[in-house]
Specification:
Helices cover about 55% and strands about 0% of the residues. It has 39 helices and no strands.
Length: about 1000
């Protein structure tokens, strides 16, 4: 059985582009179509050529243009289509064309008898120029071209000698045309909207210099553009809106780093707008009919395009980056048939690597990273499984794939000048080798297993591992002969790394086989497997040794990685009974792992506790080994095994959530009703315990504080993730057991219900644990971790000086930890609990915040605004929680906050009326003190009374003094200490 090189057995690379996003347009942030970008780019090109040309600007009418004797010009260089070789001056060796240097294939000459306009060659027509070619390639109509030139002529007449980089082209063109210059009003409005969108993109969204927060010009421009998009702006010179637009635009475009007014206008040189426009030029270099070929005049086109660099802020590095992306994407989108495109992209990336060593601004770095990540991601999809991608017919393209991936990875390294290039290349290629070889091994294993099943009726079939060993030998030899010679350019031990992976993969399968073989006598199948394994090991070691002859260590590292199979030691590992031993071992593992578990979110990339992974893995291995035992009573003995596993897992779950507290653990005791006074100091009785964070005067460090390692927020998230992981894995394990039982039984029957109940203790413990941990974590974050900025800081003293921003900043940090740590399936649930707890904490501050908080009616707007900020934190511009969930959770707070706006007299009347209605009192009866229910409501007497207690005016004080004998001024307040059992847990 050999590795086939036939195209039918090893698929080619995917033929579509998998919807690769454009790295430039993806960051544009404004809906500009390709047509709008092309038209804008063409305007820049025409204006740039006019500004740098030697001839005066002239305009030829449409009727004159149709004359064969008229040659229109806009001071563009006008080389005609390539003349015969004999008439073409030779270039020097230092002036090699871009297409020749990059190895691009040029398209055939223009079809015989046709020119660019589609007219017959026999008819009289003007000569075809490179600017004409660019216009046609970019899809610009002659009518639009004529209008652009007419507008530029008008600008030139009004501003003689002014260079293109000293004007804002869209602004100047806006003032040159009216609706009468267009076929209809709709075309005019679309044209004007495009100009405004370009101004918005270049001056507001992607400015050359960062906008000053104190500058009002951006807001003015945004308002002007918004109004103009709704109603076309009057573009006449006397138009007030146009004057305002010009003033605002020029103030933004002429900013400089030193604060002075720059002569150069910056309106299209911000990244990525400039690259989006520049990409339109580079796309025009490709022939419309032969999409994989550049036009014959590509070098003249590129020379023409470079005139726009001064306006677009393009340099050689950005040109190379943009062109490499265009070439790379063109290769993908055209069916991956023209490898010259990849080679050209690779050549340009080499230049980008050189230039990337220079310091770049953040915008350029971001574009560079996003572009390279797309290239790296796409190439690595093929390289991580190169056995499935490359075969004898396309192996020649594999080196360029590797080169592109390695180049992109090098440039993405933060310090590419530190001499790590070789290491980067080797590490990347090593990853490709190990990934693809591992995948090839898994496919071989699955193929042999499938073949084994189809041939199970044969007499004395060979064991799976015996067949697999022979197949792996052929895989290794194929790797050595075909792939390793290519990969050795970047990895000196390519073949050695490949056979090391094959050895490890087969070794893992052999270990599993040894466990099965150890339950009884050594069978003929065991002998066959051990013989095949020994032969395989000798072949793999020999390849590794030959591959490492020239290495510094002689291949010791690779050989050491290949742990010997030690097949002969199988006889010493025989075990006759093991079910009880396995369960006892699992129980010991649970206890030991929980003692050593620190719930570190960095331990595993899966973000659940490694101890849980070990326990579940051991359970899975135990069940797997159980069904491989050579016996017939699997179903009868299965309840004993599953019952033991269930108890062990339940023990793990109960101990994992113990000590984490609950919702009530962290809710403080409601302070007694009292009057408050502005500026009163926080009484001693209201302070936190000495060992709490607030008393220590320092911010809690999540998960790193002494004694709190296992109870920090990241650790709590890991506990929650672990509960979710256990639930999922239990479902998988149950299905696997059912399939195993059905495969073992000669008459399969429905046993899923009975099996599902066997893990009912663990499943119930998981459900309860998830709810408890989510609530406890949320209330711990709000009432313990953030107590310093919420309970001890929010609205203490003067409301305007103690607003919610500090609390939001720290809460956002906690939410970021949850987003980074909590599993996708439980993340939303946990954030909802945090939202509920934060809303409850906000009400606690307003209604039970103690004597240090006093509110006036004017503060109600502040309270409402702060709560909207709190809600917005969870909505996060639509990327957070669903708005309906936030609205539902905020109902109570939104009902209570308006009470702070009600006049004191009306509030007292409302309190008196509701209290009398609640207790059935007459108007003359003394009002009783309503008890605290803890459920705030605008119609609850206690809620209204607490609003009055925090009302900072004499009327409220007199009412409370007269009705309940509450003092106006508080010296010592009867407020019990916050009940936070978590502090005592830490102690």
């Amino acid at each position: 059985m050999g590795i086939s090189n036939d195209k039918t057995t090893i698929p080619a690379p995917p033929s579509d582009d998998d919807d690769l996003p454009n790295p430039f347009a993806a960051q544009l942030g404004l809906p500009l179509s390709d047509l709008e970008l092309r038209e804008t780019a063409y305007e820049v090109l025409v204006a740039s050529c006019r500004s740098t040309g030697a001839n005066p600007l002239t305009y030829i009418s449409q009727s004159q243009r149709s004359s064969p004797a008229t040659d229109r010009s806009l001071s563009m260089p006008s080389p005609r289509r390539s003349p015969p070789k004999s008439a073409t001056p030779k270039k020097s060796t230092t002036e090699k064309s871009s297409s020749n240097t990059l190895g691009l294939r040029k398209s055939a000459a223009v079809k015989k008898g046709r020119d660019l306009s589609g007219q017959d060659a026999g008819k009289a027509k003007r000569p075809v120029t490179v600017p004409d070619l660019v216009r046609v390639q970019m899809g610009i109509s002659e009518h639009a071209d004529s209008r652009i030139r007419r507008g530029l002529l008008r600008i030139a007449v009004a501003q003689v000698g002014k260079r293109i980089e000293t004007m804002v082209l869209p602004l100047e063109l806006l003032q040159q045309f009216k609706h009468t210059d267009f076929p209809n009003q709709l075309d005019f409005e679309a044209w004007q909207k495009r100009k405004l969108k370009i101004l918005e993109a270049g001056l507001l969204l992607h400015p050359h210099l960062p906008l000053d927060k104190n500058d009002t010009a951006p807001q003015r421009l945004k308002k002007l553009i918004s109004g103009a998009l709704e109603k076309p702006i009057e573009t006449g010179k006397q138009s007030e809106k146009m004057k305002g637009l010009r003033t605002t635009v020029m103030s933004l475009a002429c900013r400089s780093f030193d604060g002075s007014v720059s002569e150069t206008c910056h309106w299209a040189d911000g990244v990525p707008l400039n690259l989006c426009l520049y990409q339109m030029f580079l796309e025009a270099c490709f022939d419309a009919d032969e999409k994989t070929s550049v036009v014959e005049e590509v070098d003249e086109v590129l020379d023409l395009v470079k005139k726009t660099w001064v306006v677009l802020g393009i340099n050689q590095m950005l040109h190379n980056l943009c062109f490499s992306w265009v070439l790379f994407h063109r290769y993908i989108s055209t069916g991956q048939v023209e490898t010259n495109l990849l080679f050209a992209a690779n050549s340009l990336l080499v230049e980008v690597e050189k230039d990337a060593k220079a310091t770049m601004n953040a915008a350029c770095s971001s574009i560079l990273s996003s572009t390279l990540n797309l290239i790296l991601g796409w190439t690595e999809k093929s390289l991580l499984s190169y056995h499935d991608t490359f075969y004898s017919d396309n192996i020649d393209v594999m080196p360029i794939f590797v080169s592109l991936a390695v180049l992109a990875a090098k440039i993405l390294e933060k310090d590419i000048s530190s001499g790590k290039e070789v290491d980067v290349a080797r590490d990347r290629v090593d990853m490709y080798i190990r990934s693809s070889v591992h995948s090839a091994f898994s496919q071989a294993m699955e193929m042999i297993k499938s073949s084994k099943k189809s041939s199970k009726n044969q007499r004395n079939p060979l064991p799976v591992l015996s067949i697999l060993a022979q197949y792996i030998i052929e895989v290794a030899l194929n790797e050595k002969e075909i792939f390793s010679p290519i990969l050795k350019r970047w990895h000196p031990l390519a073949a050695g790394a490949a056979v090391a992976v094959l050895h490890a993969c087969y070794g893992n399968e052999l270990k599993r086989f040894v466990k099965i073989a150890g339950i009884g006598e050594l069978s003929p199948n065991v002998v066959l497997v051990l013989y095949a394994a020994d032969k395989l090991e000798r072949v793999l070691v020999q390849i590794a040794v030959e591959d490492s002859v020239e290495s510094e260590d002689g291949g010791k590292a690779v050989i050491q990685e290949m742990t010997p199979f030690e097949s002969e030691g199988v006889m010493d590992s025989l075990v006759k009974t093991w079910i009880g031993t396995r369960v006892d071992r699992l129980r010991e593992l649970v206890g030991r792992n929980l003692q050593e578990e620190d719930w570190d979110p960095e331990a595993y990339k899966e973000r659940y506790a490694p101890s849980a992974g070990d326990v579940l893995r051991m359970m899975d291995e135990t069940v797997e080994a159980f069904f491989l035992l050579p016996m017939t009573r699997h179903r009868a003995l299965l309840p004993d095994l599953m019952g033991g596993l269930d108890q062990c897992l339940q023990q793990y779950i109960m101990e994992a959530k113990s000590g984490c507290g609950s919702r009530n653990t962290f809710i403080p005791v409601m302070p007694a009703l009292t009057r408050c006074k502005t500026g009163s100091k926080l009484p001693v009785a209201f302070k936190r315990k000495e060992n709490s964070y607030a008393a220590q005067g320092r911010k809690p460090q999540l998960g790193t504080t002494d004694g709190e390692n296992s109870l920090g927020l990241p650790q709590q998230c890991v506990r929650i993730n672990t509960m979710q992981h256990i639930r999922v894995e239990l479902e998988v394990l149950v299905k696997r057991i059912i399939n195993r039982l059905n495969s073992k039984s000669s008459s399969p029957e429905d046993i899923s219900q009975g099996i599902g109940k066997k893990f009912e203790l663990s499943i119930a413990a998981c459900v309860e644990g998830l709810q408890q941990l989510c609530e406890a974590t949320a209330y711990k974050v709000i009432f313990h971790d953030l107590s310093r900025v919420l309970w001890d800081g929010l609205y203490v003293g003067e409301v305007a000086l103690s607003r919610i921003e500090p609390f939001l900043e720290e809460l956002e940090q906690h939410l970021e930890i949850i987003l980074a740590t909590a599993h996708d399936r439980v993340r939303t649930r946990l954030i909802i609990e945090v939202m509920k707890a934060s809303f409850e904490g906000f009400l606690f501050v307003l209604l039970a915040g103690g004597p240090s908080r006093a509110f006036t009616r004017q503060d109600s707007d502040t309270l409402e605004e702060d709560f909207m900020f709190l809600m917005d934190l969870f909505w996060f511009n639509g990327d957070g929680l669903p708005s309906e969930l936030i609205i539902k959770a905020s109902t109570t707070v939104k009902g209570v906050i308006p009470l702070f706006r009600i006049p004191t007299e009306s509030l007292i009347d409302q309190f008196r009326r509701i209290t009398q209605d609640t207790y059935g009192l007459s108007a003359k009866s003394k009002l009783p003190l309503p008890p605290t229910s803890g459920k705030w409501d605008p119609t609850d007497p206690n809620t209204l009374l607490r609003v009055l207690c925090h009302r900072n005016d004499d009327m409220a004080s007199n009412f409370l003094k007269k009705t309940y004998n509450l003092p106006k001024e508080v010296i010592q307040v009867q407020v019990p200490e916050l009940k936070l059992p978590y502090d005592s847990m830490l102690g």
